[in-house]
Give the backbone structure.
Amino acid sequence: MYEHDVIVVGAGGAGLRAAIAAHEEGADVAIVSKLHPVRSHTGAAEGGINAALREGDSWEDHAYDTMKGSDYLADAPAAETLCKDSPKETIKLEHWGMAFSRDDDGRVSQRPFGGLSFPRTTYAGAETGHQLLHTMYEQLVKRGIKVYDEWHVTRLAVSDEEKPEDRTCHGIVAYDVQTGQVEGFRARNGVILATGGLGQVYDHTTNAVANTGDGVAMAYRAGAPMEDMEFIQFHPTTLPSTGVLITEGVRGEGGILYNENGERFMFEYGYANNLGELASRDVVSRAELTEVNEGRGIEDEYVHLDMRHLGEERIIDRLENIVHLSEDFEGVNPLEAPMPVKPGQHYAMGGIETDENGETCISGLYAAGECACASVHGGNRLGGNALPELIVFGKRAGHHAAGKDMEEARITTGKEGEYELGEVDSPVELGEAGIGEDAVADGGTAADAGASVSGTDLVQRAVEDERETIETLLERDDGIQQAEIRERVQKSMTRNVNVFREESALKDALRDLREARELYQQVFVADKSRTFNTDLLQTLEMRNILDIAEAITLGALARNEFRGAHWRKEYQERRDEEWLKHTMLSWNDGRPELWYKPVILEGENKTYEPKVRSY
Amino acid sequence: MSTQVPESVEEESATETASAGKQKRDAKKRERAERVQEQREAEAAEKARSADDTYHLKVFRYDPEVPEKQEPRFDDFHVPYKQGMTVLDALMWARDHYDSSLTFRHSCRQAICGSDALFVNGSQRLGCKTQLSDLSEPIRVEPLPHSDVVKDLVVDMEHFYDQMESVEPYFQTNSLPDGELDEQRQTRENREKVKMSTRCIWCSACMSSCNIAAGDNEYLGPAAINKAYRFAMDEREGEDMKQRRLEILEQEHGVWRCQTQFSCTEVCPKDIPLTEHIQELKREAIKNNLKFW
């Protein structure tokens, strides 16, 4: 068994920042990640980092934009923390040498982005994430922080008190991909989950193959609630054949969207009369799909994004990477022709419930970055707000886990504050299939560990459970393989739980997911080797995809309103009197339990009164 | 979920009925799963047969633990073609429909994570960035040469990482501004100067293509030298640091080993002018040494 003060799971932007912060506080910290840090999907982020750095801008304006963009479902203490801390965290990256694009006076460049009242998106070409990730990894190397790379974390070692709020996280269990070993990692102070996105729930996504929502699913099964899972961001400009992202920066710099008739539909059909292409992402995605559905799409599938009028010099200076992506992955040279684009899954606004210090309701368990939900983004994330989230909340979680005194959080976690129970009408049984049977899908807490059990023993038990699960998977030699189940789930989610949602389709998705869960009970791993067994790795990821897909669908079915990225056919309005609340799901002995907690709209100096959200 | 207890023959009748029921259910579920699986395999075979266009891949296979794979061999895969399909797409299709033990690293699918550098038809390329339609058949897919193979197309990257980390690959300066909100200024020209060098995705295609690195295990290699270039040329680090950087690069296994064969530059998927960077550092080193005469 390995032992450290702080264990960080995941090595993207949030994980690296958390590790550096914990190290700054003197903690013995290690990162455990299924990818080598530089392979993390933070590297694919293109657009930039929102930070109020310039005269005429302020964190208050940034917070206002963020709350409005969230469609009033973000918690003000979290959104304000993001906006207040982002400037110094962004400049910290500059001090670490990050190669930002520069203005003539030598200062870092900023550009306009969707939904922003000031051009505050600080960027490095159209490869800001790549520069950020590598800069941060350099700092990790400088500090000599230990990384266990290509170790896939499979479960948390959490005590099993009745109420999640009474539980403690003592460590993790991880599978060494290179050797097939299953080992425990004891965390003396805390575990920080920074596992990133969950886009592999869908088949058309900008996310990497590795983005299977592992941290969210693990925390959920250990008792930390998932929050606002129905809020999935569909980015309006992804390449149709692969889902590769074309940054919002293209529109920020002046790129224009056209339908098949060559109409600038954002204005001509009144989707966003003021901001046009720079309305927030949910608005633009719906507009594009409406165009396609009404017969004005190109090849009934996509629209055109044209940036040729910007001129080659400006494009190469600020968006060069986009030229390469469009050429390599769609065969279109955007200097000569408009790029085909359509909405694709991009980001999960929801995730593991945390407070503004990154702590969950389970003592010693933290989360930061895309896998967490503080909630900064509420119903819709603004472009350029994901990267600051990584550095701001990664740092806070790192400091907190290392034992630094933090200001008391205003956001409550678990059922500690005000809450109400919810109900949802599901056509099928929910939760784990085959409860009470020898279900391989079980990934819960270490069973029957009494209060007297030490942290180390608890980790050891979790290791033994996991070894047994893996042996079972490897011993079977017939049944069904994960690739088939994965394809079914992805297709059903893309068909039924996409940009436009309606009750009957959501119920179809729940039926498909039930079937997928039952199939998963018969899953087998054909590759019996202990060496670099990606068949096994993907089979383990699959159980996370199942739990997350169900949570997204369940939340979408429960929320009877239209807010942010969540559009419902039957409910065409935002219903503030009933729905200014977060959708919470807790894993209750293998079944999802639905409840709600109120949104906090009261900020430090003002209350963000919900207004009609028009762009 | 304890399975430690050996199965007892004489169980209570109630348990027996329950477990018999469960067995029946399990058998049914298993049957269904198998049916779905068989159907899928049949469909895949049918798809490959009926597709107008299939691509023939010969893929290197090796697994130290599996007897029939201990001797490296090539497996043939016929993959149905779709417009825009890449080598990575084809490998994923083959894995998901024919052989789930086919092993390769991949993640982002868009040439930024640097996981899937492979040896395709005799040169180092990223699988995700290489169109099948640009290649002649059969397409030979092999792990990167000059690296230890872990399994199939996966190679051991440790040596590459060690070299990258040996050049103090992090920003160092003595002239940071005092305020936490004050930026260090950098001219647009200087940012442009280091831009290409910052694009490295650590895929190690260059290192694998380099004859010198193949013969001298301690040679820093093009990627690590490029990483050092990125800092040495950054005006924000200052002159003192540049001295130090040049000392690191001038070591026995540093820039002077390069014989300007340009193979690294040819294979770099991010178009980094690696050889040029190495040459420039050699010139800098000479200028620097002359200064002290």
